[in-house]
Specification:
Shape: globular
Strand content: 25-35%
Largest sheet: 10 strands, mixed
Distance between the termini: 52 Å
Helix content: 25-40%
Low-confidence stretches: 303-308
Strand order of the largest sheet: 21-20-24-18-17-14-1-19-23-22
Length: about 525
């Protein structure tokens, strides 16, 4: 049996936990919007045509921000198509995803849905086929109160008050040759800077995200970030990072170590940010927006006979990249969430891509049910429990050799704490061995174990078990047994099942006293 030791201390703070770490993404792609969040004919559809069953699951999942409307889609998007009377909106060919876009869901409808879901909108602008003038026009339409042609057009379209969108993405994956309007770093950097400058003249309160590399394997990775930031560092608050992971050729050990890859990716981008800020003598912070991340089986996506996207047929909302996630995928998603928390001092926001149907934690069928994929559970539990500050965790454990990342810790961990709770997020990367964990809580003593849950393979050990329409609850969080807290609250013992993601919530020692003192200080 493998063993691990962990030490945590409340004084060893990485950064506050930002709710923005738990964002998601809705793109006009496949069935993300149509028959995903929106299906007027569905039995649960509300007065706006949005599926109430999906909306309920979104609220349970707990995302804080939603990036919209793309993604690759935005690089050919005419925002004017998505406003005004629905009956007058044009039907267009969407070249990004080789499909037909009806524009029946646009800015107003999505903003109404976001209000119902309780999420903040992160709006992307088209820097593929368009540029400065159209980005500024969309911002004015969205955020200016009244008295101009564009703001009054918004009011005439049914929204008297501004949308008040704070977060804006300056295009999407412009380094990729698959992108409509693909540009060199120099071309994009210049355009992004000029667009950012004009947008901030329209509304100086907004936050802007420059487009970083599409992935760490891009041949221009690193040089792209440096060039883009040379142009935009004075004007933007964030730069994006996109990261997808999959199991390749049965190399499950490397797949389970994906969070190590994400840690290194974040670290490399952070170092470039620091270098550019120092060279320009800028006293500011630029955060890393991990605004697309997930497990995505891209090798399956590229199989011609499985995806109408690649066959030449033009249809509305085709079924594309509707990955069915296993318990193994859920464990990896849990570890990627750990990485985002561990790097909370550099990661300013993050978006699980996507929300419904398209590589998503939520699946739905037209006219039928909606259900939670396996990956839903680590996201929902982490988003609900991670509060206060991220703490550094001192880990001493056995290591496993991987082809892609070298030797990695068998235990992957993140820790958060507020006045009331200390929460441990734990991954056992071993496929076969339980992991006996000993936690030194001397620096963060606890009174009791509030909850302990785990996601792991079923009793038959099938790591490919997934949740489906027929069996929507094949993989759900279960009680983590064998968790014991010492009488003095300074030591915790737990046994983590093989191939598992677990969460342990502890009630902090003197939590009530700390809360009362905090309230008195506010007074």
């Amino acid at each position: 049996m493998a063993t691990a030791r962990l030490r945590i201390d409340r004084t060893e703070i990485v950064a506050p936990v930002s709710a923005r770490l738990f964002g998601s993404f809705v793109e006009h792609m496949g069935r993300s919007v149509y028959t995903g969040i929106y299906e007027p004919e569905h039995p649960t559809a509300n007065f706006d045509g949005f599926r109430q069953d999906v909306l309920d699951l979104v609220r349970e999942l707990g995302p804080s921000i939603i990036r919209y409307p793309g993604g690759n889609f935005v690089s050919g998007f005419r925002w004017e198509d998505s406003v005004g009377p629905r009956g007058e909106r044009p039907v267009r060919l969407d070249l990004a995803w080789h499909s037909i876009e009806t524009n029946q869901v646009g800015l107003h409808e999505f903003a109404d849905w976001a209000d119902q879901a309780g999420v903040e909108i992160m709006q992307a602008v088209n820097l593929g086929t368009r540029g400065i003038e159209d980005a500024a026009a969309l911002l004015e339409y969205s955020n200016h109160p009244a008295g101009t042609a564009l703001s009054d057009a918004r009011r005439a379209d049914g929204r008297a008050e501004p949308f008040g969108i704070t977060l804006w993405c300056l295009g999407n994956e412009m380094d990729g040759p698959w992108q409509i309007g693909h540009k060199t770093a120099e071309e994009y950097g210049r355009l992004a800077a000029e667009t950012a400058r004009v947008m901030k003249w329209v509304d100086p309160t907004i936050e802007l995200v420059a487009a970083g590399s599409s992935n760490a394997e891009m041949p221009t990775f690193g040089s792209w970030e440096r060039t883009v930031l040379e142009h935009t560092a004075e004007l933007v608050e964030h730069i994006s990072l996109h990261a997808y992971y999959e199991e390749l050729d049965g190399d499950v050990d490397s797949f389970l170590a994906s969070a190590v890859g994400l840690d290194r990716y974040i670290g490399a981008v952070a170092a470039i940010i620091d270098d550019v800020l120092e060279s320009k003598n800028l006293d500011k912070t630029i955060g890393i927006s991990v605004d697309e991340w997930n497990v995505w089986y891209q090798t399956r996506f590229n199989t011609v006979d499985k995806h109408p996207l690649l066959t030449g047929d033009w249809v509305e909302h085709p079924r594309i990249i509707e990955d069915e996630y296993s318990v193994t995928d859920a464990v990896v998603v849990g570890s990627l969430l750990n990485s985002l928390l561990r790097n909370a001092d550099r990661v300013s926001m993050a978006n699980l891509a996507q929300l419904v149907n398209v590589i998503a934690p939520i699946r739905s069928e037209p006219g039928g049910p909606a259900w939670r994929q396996t990956t839903f559970h680590p996201f929902a539990l982490t988003a609900a429990a991670a509060r206060g500050n991220v703490l550094r965790a001192e880990v001493d454990c056995e290591r496993v050799d991987t082809v892609r990342y070298g030797a990695v810790d068998l235990l992957d961990v993140a820790v958060t704490a507020d006045d009331a709770d200390v929460v441990l997020f734990l991954v056992n990367r071993s496929l076969t061995e339980p992991l006996t964990l000993s936690v030194d809580l001397t620096g963060a003593p606890a009174d009791s174990v509030l909850a302990a849950q785990s996601i792991h393979a079923p009793a038959d050990g099938d790591r490919f078990t997934s949740n489906t329409e027929v069996h929507p609850d094949a993989v759900v969080p279960v009680a983590l047994t064998g968790v014991t807290l010492s009488g003095d609250g300074r030591h915790l013992q737990a046994e983590l099942p093989p191939l598992s993601w677990s969460i342990v919530r502890l009630r902090a020692r003197d939590a009530g006293v700390m809360r009362e003192a905090k309230e008195n200080n506010r007074g």
